[in-house]
Design a protein that fits this description.
Low-confidence stretches of chain A: 1-8
Mean pLDDT of chain A: 83
Strand content of chain B: 5-15%
Helix content of chain A: 55-70%
Largest interface: A-B, 23 and 26 residues
Number of helices of chain A: 4
Strand content of chain A: 5-15%
Number of strands of chain A: 3
Number of helices of chain B: 19
Shape of chain B: elongated
Distance between the termini of chain B: 57 Å
CATH topology of chain A: Arc Repressor Mutant, subunit A
CATH superfamily of chain A: Winged helix-like DNA-binding domain superfamily/Winged helix DNA-binding domain
Oligomer: heterodimer
Amino acid sequence: MVAKPKGELLPGTLEMLILATLRREPLHGYAIAQCIHQESGNLLRAEEGSLYPALQRLLIEGWVSAEWGVSSRNRRVRVYTLTPAGLRQLSRQMKFMERQIDGLSRIMRFSES
Amino acid sequence: MKRVLRYLRAKRFEHDLSAEIEAHLEEKIDQFIEEGRTPEAARANALRQFGNRTRVAEYSREQWAFVPFDEFVQDLRFACRILARNPAFTTVAVLSLALGIGANTILFGAVDQVLLHALPYREPACLFAVTSRSANHGIEPMQVSAADFYDWRAQSHSFESLSAYSSWPMNLTNVDEPRRLESELVSTSLFSTLGVNAEMGRTFQPNEDQEKSPFVVVISHRLWQEFGASPQIIGHAVTLNGSPATIVGVMPANFAFPSPDVDAWTPLSLSAKNRSNREGRWLSVIGRLNPGANERSAAEMDIMTRRLAVSYPASNAGWSASLLPLTEQLIGKARPILLIIQAAALLLLLVTCVNLANLLLARGTSRAQEIAVRAALGGQPRSSTPATARGEPFAGGPRRKSGSRCGDPRDRTCKETGERTHSANQRSSHGCFSCCIRRSCNTGDRAHLWISSGDPCLASRPCKPD
């Protein structure tokens, strides 16, 4: 088993982040990792070891589709695209995540007061 | 179903995945180079950050692969390989197993037929063999005289029906090949007593045991087939003991009363003189008890035989009758013998298994070195099957080709070390050897340092060649 990335917050976060990243444009694996890293203000780092298993899961669920394409460095890469089902899943997961964060922050506030 | 489909596409998944990971690394290396590192440093850095490639690939595979099945196939393949490589061991194992299993199969076949299958008659538990006994003639049950049989049949209330039979071989002539036929004289009620009907045609009618009634015969399935298995056999005339007889019925193939070699049944047709003969005890008697008549039947037989003994002291004094369940009569003596032989066969199988287990254990010991190498190269024991069940007493499954896991620099160290040490220290004890490799694996970053400083084994001196 690959160790869970230490930066991961809650279960399902990585999947959600991947889906969110792909909403804007189709990307290949390495670009997804880069994007997550940069867009999070270098706070989050998708561990590459976990990225591919997660992508496989998303493929199996039908939330993303994969096509062979060409990267900006002109290399043959597999480009992932968000499917409509993936979009629905993303909004579901975001709602779920918001509620979790809401709950967490309430407890944090409660413990401070 | 989905899983199976996915599994069938496994090859494609696998190919895509490895190409994808390769591209990922190349991209990363390119980026590092763009950031100003040397190609070597970029590569090392990219590999390190990525982690164990093989593990990532494996973990990704596990998302869609049918892991238990996969492992099972791997185990199977491994077992076949090992067996093929050790023909002597394989021969011994296969032969001893074949012997043990074969003996058990044969014996269980007999036990199954004799002890576990109910007799092929209607409610066989109600069927009883009725025998005569006399203290003056020993304790063995004896057959019944015709007169006694007819008296019993007339007087008894416990029996739904009571039938007699006696072996009476006859000459079959008027056919292509005349022969001696194993046949039985039977009461016309015998078939209804047993509760078996003819497969074709009919069995006997009650009045067909009259002396003047036409001579009819019921034949076995086997004899019918010898006659050409024609459906026109019913009504066909044959000559038995010189008298013309008409075939009226064919019994089913599994009907074998009282023994499997009987080919024909004819009515027990006795003259008045023979009917009243009490001296000649030559009939076997079988009866079907009325439901619930079990308890009073013995008492009733007792009363009847006493009455007969009083009426006919010359022939019947001292004679009684006894009932024995038909199953007991047919297989009574065979049961303990069969069970003992079956137990012996089971023991034989057990001994076979123990022998094989010993052989496997011995092989396990001789494979210790191989297993140490596997363990040292990163082979993992399976979770699903216990290691010992695969002859691996302590570690190191046959799961991966050795070295296939060595994606990251640490593992690479291990692999290279392993190979080098293996060739260099062939004579060194394997325990020491594996400890040396393990240490180089476990210490992680130091192992990485070791790569540049030379052989980690020599550097740390954990093992000395003998």
